[in-house]
C-alpha cells in the first residue's frame, strides 16, 4: 500500500496540532525550564563560552554595555545595555530574559516598529544555551543584586496562574 501525499500532510498537521495541545505553546514557556542556574558550574562554563562568542562584542567583555546605552543613536537604535549591576537586566524575571533573548524585544513586547541591533537567537542558540548564557550573566552580579533578582522571580511566579 502506498501513501498518498494529502493523507500524509493531513496526518502530520494533525500530529502537530495534538502536540501543540498536549505540550502547549513553545513560545509561552510551557514545558520548558527557563530558570537560571547561576550556581551550576557546568551551566556557567557553557554560558561563559556562549557569552564570549555571541554577546561580548556588543555587551562588553565585562558586561559593561556600550556608551550612552540609554540614548538612541543616529540610526534610531539604542546601544547595547550593560548586563552588569548598573544595567536593567536584573529587573526582569528569568522567563522574560529568556524570551527576549530567543524571540527579540519587539515580539516579546508586541512592538511592531521597534528597531534594535539585538539579534533574535531563535534558531541560532538552543534553549539550553540561552539559559546557560543568562545564568552566567547572573553569576557575575553582586550578591545583593542576585538576591533582588530572585525576588523579581518570586513576584513574577506568584502572578502566574
Describe this structure in words.
- The protein has 161 residues and is mostly helical.
- It contains six helices and no strands.
- α3 (94-103) packs across α5.
- The chain is globular, with a radius of gyration of 19 Å.
- The termini are far apart.
Topology of helices and strands:
Elements (H helix, E strand, L loop, with lengths): L4 H19 L17 H19 L34 H10 L1 H5 L17 H13 L3 H17 L2
Helix pairs in contact: 2-5, 3-5
In short:
The protein is mainly α. Helices cover 52% and strands 0% of the residues.
Features:
mainly alpha; 161 residues; single chain
Give the terminus-to-terminus CA distance. Answer: 49 Å
Q: How can the largest sheet be summarized?
A: none
**Strand share of the residues?**
under 5%
What integer value in Å does the Rg equal?
Answer: 19 Å
**So what's the oligomer here?**
single chain
Amino acid at each position: 500500500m502506498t501513501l498518498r501525499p494529502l493523507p500524509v500532510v493531513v496526518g502530520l498537521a494533525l500530529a502537530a496540532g495534538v502536540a501543540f495541545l498536549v505540550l502547549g505553546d513553545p513560545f509561552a514557556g510551557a514545558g520548558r525550564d527557563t530558570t537560571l542556574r547561576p550556581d551550576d558550574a557546568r551551566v556557567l562554563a557553557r554560558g561563559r563560552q556562549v557569552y564570549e562568542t555571541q554577546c561580548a562584542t556588543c555587551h562588553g567583555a565585562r558586561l559593561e554595555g556600550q556608551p550612552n546605552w540609554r540614548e538612541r543613536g543616529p540610526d534610531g537604535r539604542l546601544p547595547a545595555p550593560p548586563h552588569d549591576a548598573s544595567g536593567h537586566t536584573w529587573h526582569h524575571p528569568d522567563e522574560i530574559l529568556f524570551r527576549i533573548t530567543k524571540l527579540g524585544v519587539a515580539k516579546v513586547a508586541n512592538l511592531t516598529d521597534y528597531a534594535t541591533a539585538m539579534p533574535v537567537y531563535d534558531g541560532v542558540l538552543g534553549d539550553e544555551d540561552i539559559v546557560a548564557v543568562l545564568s552566567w550573566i547572573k553569576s557575575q552580579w553582586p550578591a545583593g543584586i542576585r538576591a533582588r533578582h530572585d525576588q523579581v522571580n518570586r513576584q513574577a511566579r506568584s502572578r502566574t496562574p
